[in-house]
Amino acid sequence: MAGSPDMAALEDTFRKFAIYGDTKAAGHEMNGKNWAKLCKDCKVMDGKGVTSTDVDIVFSKVKGKTARVISYEEFKKALEELAPKRFKGKSAEEAYESICQLVAGKEPTNVGVTKAATGGALDRLTDTSKYTGSHKERFDESGKGQGESGREDIYKHAGTYDAKVKK
Which has the closest alpha carbon to 72: 110, 100, 111, 93? Predict the structure, then answer.
């Protein structure tokens, strides 16, 4: 089934997902986690015709017996396996072309990435104007920390314990 649209874009998508989340990956092989992410991000998984279980089964079917990853050729076979499930009313050829169009030119998305916390409690706890005691002296009038100099001689009564005990 070589007559599918824009194989360069399909291979580019394969490489982008293959290296996703792995700093040492060269982009020649894709693991099961990234295969599942590709299927989810490119909307190959629709929850009805193609589920996460189907995606995992196809991955296991196309990879080698002892292998943990798939090559680009195995990736194309996996798409071929999923195509009839995803596009039920079409012929095998049309379904494969449709699934290739879904995948080609896509990149991994970063949905659900944790954002920095902002809110009432955090603002209240980090407001230096409300600091008291020795902590207050570590900041200048504008609320900017003084760094190392703010921590020197912070205790006004340092070394006076022995004098109090001898009384």
Answer: 100
